[in-house]
Fold this protein.
Amino acid sequence: MHIIASLLEEGFIPFAFGAQANLDMLHPAPFGAALRMIPSDGPDHLAMHRIINRLNGLAYGGKDMGMPAWVQIDCGALPSSFIGFALPAEKIPDRLKWDMDLRGDEPFVPVAEAISIPTAAPGVWTSYSMSTVIPGHKLGYASKLMSLKAYGCRRTLGVAQFDNFALRLHTRFGALEIVEPRVPYHTCPTNTFTYALDLRGGAVLDVLERGGAMEDPRDPTFVLDAQDTDKMDWMAQRKQAGIARYWLLPPGADRSEGRVLNPIFEELL
């Protein structure tokens, strides 16, 4: 099953929203899905800015991580492009219209988006803000796939929490190399970590879009409780000392008896 093609058949509209110069640099039709290019420059697209912000806020506002407008500009539309799926306004359920604060003049409405911004290293992007307001269609997953393909991404960096079930989606792309086992200065300080992911020159994206899976033959060295900050600090100390490296193995974030557990592979150096 080709995931992107199936969403097109359901009537979802692929789009990219960012500065015109960024749109010009994208692959115009990742996985054969032509992107509707919407420039963020100037006042004519204020409604799109507002809807993208509301979409992100619905996904992350409960953790007080909804995207401020300045972040959306400085770290989103200006250096990159939001890429995802939209629906014609008449196909948006009434309750969702209310939740998204639609005003009735939107020709189509983004319902899922993902964004990555380039780093100083060629082909390496930092991914954030994957979100959707229509569950059950793999729209967030498909948006991340399509965006990484459009950027020509080869390796990603990301920030997540050990108790976030989005890890089950992120690890579909492969085992996550843990760059920082604990990031206590984050908005969610208890169990935030940073990770890197090798997309193998982009080949991972093609496998996943065709409905394939990334297998990892390694067995976990130990299981990390998502609230075990002592273990996270221990991992950070060993990594900083050059003793070991760590990977979060698929599928990650397994709920068991009220706890969230993550399989960790330790490579001794």
Observations:
- Residues 46-60 form the longest helix (15 residues).
